[in-house]
Write a sequence for this structure.
């Protein structure tokens, strides 16, 4: 089977050519979106994996300022895009952790939810273009076919000649447009499904990392509160027993007589 596409294109009327150009534009746009998304996903995955490995020790040591500086070195990572604003909010309110722990954690949790939503939107950026091309391109190709068939029958009415041979050329030209629409739509749909799966996988990892980080902050906050309560109870016990915290805990406090001599009182 042989088709002279150049000859077929030149024999098309202006409407069929317009449809062909529209389909070619859809194909170019969908290809550009697919390449851009693939590159973005690969870079995000690699940088997120590197950041995750380096951030584990910093989080365990609660060195959040160093973690912030480390995360800023990976701008293409969606994990970094989620983590950097959350760390900034926490460090901004860190001095209120002991006084208002619930408020601080709630502020951080809301910031985390906002950044997760932004990351989800960024991950799916451009995928709607692929979905639209996959669903619209066959219809546009069918439109070109209908227009081509109408033009073919119009030539019959103009020339007055009938028969299959007189319309076969016009119908074949029209069907080429439908084939072009399917040729563009099928890869667009397949690429859309593949990129959607990749996007969901990245988003799932970011959501899990954000949840683990919030769990770490809440657990660390509980430890700080318990240590603070123990310290307060210790000072209160010392004050109640009349002991000086600096006397070594021997149960004695120094009282001074008028003559300046010390009296040890148990």
């Amino acid at each position: 089977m042989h088709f002279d596409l150049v000859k077929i294109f030149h024999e098309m009327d202006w409407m069929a050519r317009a449809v062909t150009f529209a389909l070619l534009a859809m194909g170019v746009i969908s290809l550009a979106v697919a390449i851009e998304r693939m590159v973005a996903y690969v870079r995000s995955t690699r940088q997120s994996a590197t950041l995750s490995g380096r951030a584990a020790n910093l989080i365990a040591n609660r060195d959040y300022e160093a973690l912030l500086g480390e995360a800023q070195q990976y701008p293409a990572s969606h994990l970094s895009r989620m983590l950097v604003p959350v760390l900034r909010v926490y460090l901004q309110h860190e001095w209120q952790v002991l006084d208002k722990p619930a408020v601080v954690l709630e502020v951080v949790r809301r910031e985390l939810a906002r950044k997760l939503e932004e990351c989800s939107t960024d991950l799916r950026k451009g995928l709607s273009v692929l979905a639209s091309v996959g669903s619209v391109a066959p219809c546009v190709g069918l439109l070109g076919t209908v227009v081509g068939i109408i033009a073919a029958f119009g030539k019959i009415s103009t020339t007055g000649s009938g028969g299959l041979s007189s319309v076969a050329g016009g119908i074949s030209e029209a069907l080429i447009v439908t084939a072009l629409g399917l040729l563009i739509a099928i890869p667009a749909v397949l690429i859309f499904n593949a990129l959607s799966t990749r996007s969901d996988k990245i988003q799932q990892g970011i959501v899990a990392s954000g949840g683990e980080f919030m769990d770490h902050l809440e657990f660390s906050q509980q430890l700080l509160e318990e240590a603070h309560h123990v310290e307060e109870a210790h000072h209160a016990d010392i004050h109640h027993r009349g002991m000086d915290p600096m006397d070594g805990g021997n149960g004695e406090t120094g009282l001074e007589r008028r003559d300046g001599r010390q009296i040890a009182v148990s």
Q: What stands out?
A: The helical segments are 5-11, 14-60, 64-71, 78-92, 101-123, 127-159, 164-241.
